[in-house]
């Protein structure tokens, strides 16, 4: 039995939790010039406040009484069947923790990273607005509210990718992200139409209670529409192309929106709609397959990137593929666990990469890095823990969550997805260690003097280093240990007990390969990936002529990979070109001859009509009285006829 | 002999009495106050009276009282219409305070209060005598109000209004006489008798009665007075007239339609009303296209809006009446808001009504232009405003009542109107051809009413239309 509606009654704290970032956004937006650097503190404080409220809401969000789970706060009854409200249950509570907790650390970090930017306050206004939108998404108790949040996070993402709007590439990337995300929004809207036509209510509780009455084709249709939305937001193939481009935004944006929170909204959507997915085997198959394909494709593309943020972006895409395949096949706890640990280690990786980018004066190409281990030991250790975690080295957080997903795929009867995700784990180890080795080992290959110290010249003043180092340092702890703390112990782990009331327990036949053996296989594959990376980038021979080797490697990358599997070319050909052609057709032929002609006719007709109506307005009372008398006469004749008829 | 007033519930009359007493107070106090103060004293008393009456009406919400032997009834929709009329009073008094001429303040305020009394009486009128009483109280005061400034156009407007309105009232009065002849009663409740459906007198009487209502609603072809009178009358009076007259007349029409028609006769009896409503939606919106004056524009807009509201009532479903009231409330805010913007633009009242003074407004007064955009979008029926939601509701009720052709005319009329509203909005955001003079300081109260109206127009989009919220409005 799925419990989806909160305990009746109100929980006003939830409203405060939800609105605090909005207040911060409005204040930063309206009083930015007055607040100056205070706006960063204010925005961070708002998120800190929200996080504290989320912690205080722990018992309310996890209460389970009388078949109802979590806390509920009604907000507004609108049209019949559409009531807005906030729902805090274990699922939304978890997302709230990440959004506000990791969000707080990234806000704090941004005070250093964005220091000296001329639109400092605007940045924090957007960031707070994003958090508000994301909270709307996850706290909403109905599909319409979810869609509102869904659209607003897309808008916030658009603002933030294009934050440095003087760069044409940033503007193009922002537009691309927005357009692809709107495709997803429209798909969700269709799902909502289909749900409303059949259930006549938008509340999650009502919809999930009615799952049994929806026919299986209809259920599949709804799931597919929802999945298109999830795929667009979570960068799943073939709607993934916007995510690497989105790295044009400032690095904290990449960490918060395009790694930790927004891009996992698709995972949230599927987990939230678990009753729908569990009821449709075809939908599970679809989501699982797309997730697995995305995981391995993202990993392959991650192997051939040179931009440090793009490597991380493809790795994000690949890791979200894991999450989607996890929740897609029905291993909800595993998929969510991977979201949870990923939020920490990927934020950690991005923020640490941001330290490097910031120190090197916005250099992002790893070929012009190298040897940074001695120059930036803190960043090295931070990235190292992140890499160990994302590769799933036993003991680190990523190990627990990734193995849950991989084993879950097998347990739910998808051997191919299982095999694909094991292969992906090996690739992950390869490209992540590749990133680590190229960046930190060997000799520095950039134009050092001009940059390492030159960033001081870029900024008139510097925020103290600890502002950026502290959040990275804090994130090391969960990156390393939160998996062991929460997910150790299988059925009896705190994690399993936390989600036990949320997701229906299913008994599955024991798979042919046990979990322990799976972990061992994965570890072997990871070691293999590490070994390849080591032999190519970390050996003495490799480092001897690193510049030369990296250049030949870049030249030898197959065209299919440098062109990113031709997804962009395909989209350009099929959609962009077609749309442009249609547009040209309409602009050159249809519009001037057909539409304009018709419009001209309408204008002429309405003008004539307007002139006619006006001509009746002579200003003469006797003319007015005549019109009035005419109307009265018509009335009287009509009633005389009717009266004659009834006699 | 005791006066048989025992059945009278004084509660029903308290709100009207408050407004009437406030009017007297204004006149009396004016005798003792000298200097510049009268303006604020008179308007202050008027505002206090209006607010007090509004509070009392709100307290009576859902209570059934009746006075004058059933000639005046509250409960059901009366309270809603009374509140709308009082809103119009407050809005126009504020505008008058912001831009009205300093002389004749007391007289104008008192007349506004009395015409409010008339409109409130109409809102609850349940027999022909009280209907006529209320109508005349409203109209007579309005004739005077139209001519209260020393402008030729104002005098002309007053005279035109008087002559044409009297003609229409003649029809109405004759219709009432015929109805009385057919039924032997002045009570609307007695018209329900099904035997009346075969009485020729009843049909003729009903028809002529409706002519009077159509005139007051300024439905085509009884609309000719509206543009001239709206343009000539002082701006606050136009604002008041555009809302209060419509609300009061709609209340009478609703009472007639929902409580007083013999079964089976309603469809035939009201068909001409639906037809003129349909024509109004087209002609009213088309008439807007060629206008250069905001008040004339809103006059034509009002002609079309009356058609929209009648479309909601077509078919006579209870839901339709609720939707009509929703739209009327929204219309009150958007219309008063648009007039308030005009008042803020100019202190002398009249230049703000010229559409040329809106050119480039967004560059001079961005917030004001935003507010005006909201009002015009609402009048055009675009999201995210109450006008959009209201039109959706109207369409749904008229289609489900079987009046598809009215829904079609509404959509066609809306399409035409987009051009006129869009043109005005475009003018505000386009660069001005000439840089107009500096913005003048404006009354904070007028600003406040702009903001309140804008917020209401947006907020009403999210008005929770659950059955529990809208059911109490009717009966």
Descriptive overview:
The complex is a heterodimer of chains A (647) and B (475). Chain A is mainly α. Helix content of chain A is 75%, strand content 3%. Chain A is built from 30 helices and 4 strands. Chain A has a two-stranded antiparallel sheet with strand order 1-2. In chain A, strands 3-4 form a two-stranded antiparallel ribbon. Chain B is built from 18 helices and 2 strands. In chain B, a hairpin with a 4-residue loop joins β1 (66-67) and β2. The chains are: A mainly alpha (647), B mainly alpha (475). Chains A and B meet through α29 and α30 of A and α6, α7, α8 and α10 of B.
Quick structural summary:
By secondary structure, chain A is mainly alpha-helical. Chain A has helices spanning 13-35, 38-56, 58-62, 90-113, 120-139, 143-161, 168-199, 204-209, 216-233, 242-245, 251-260, 265-272, 274-279, 281-302, 308-329, 332-359, 372-375, 377-391, 397-411, 415-440, 448-452, 455-458, 465-487, 494-499, 515-538, 540-544, 546-556, 559-562, 567-616, 621-646, and strands spanning 64-65, 68-69, 71-77, 83-88. A two-stranded antiparallel sheet of chain A has the order 1-2. Chain A has a two-stranded antiparallel sheet with strand order 3-4.
How do the helices and strands line up, and which of them pair or pack?
The complex is a heterodimer of chains A (647) and B (475).
Chain A: H1 13-35, H2 38-56, H3 58-62, E1 64-65, E2 68-69, E3 71-77, E4 83-88, H4 90-113, H5 120-139, H6 143-161, H7 168-199, H8 204-209, H9 216-233, H10 242-245, H11 251-260, H12 265-272, H13 274-279, H14 281-302, H15 308-329, H16 332-359, H17 372-375, H18 377-391, H19 397-411, H20 415-440, H21 448-452, H22 455-458, H23 465-487, H24 494-499, H25 515-538, H26 540-544, H27 546-556, H28 559-562, H29 567-616, H30 621-646
Antiparallel strand pairs in A: 1-2, 3-4
Helix pairs in contact in A: 1-2, 1-5, 2-4, 2-5, 4-5, 4-11, 4-16, 4-23, 5-6, 6-7, 7-9, 9-12, 9-14, 11-16, 12-15, 14-15, 14-20, 15-16, 15-19, 15-20, 16-18, 16-19, 16-23, 18-20, 18-23, 19-20, 19-23, 20-25
Chain B: H1 10-32, H2 37-59, E1 66-67, E2 72-73, H3 78-99, H4 105-124, H5 128-146, H6 152-183, H7 200-216, H8 225-232, H9 235-259, H10 266-288, H11 294-313, H12 318-345, H13 361-364, H14 366-380, H15 386-400, H16 404-429, H17 444-459, H18 467-470
Antiparallel strand pairs in B: 1-2
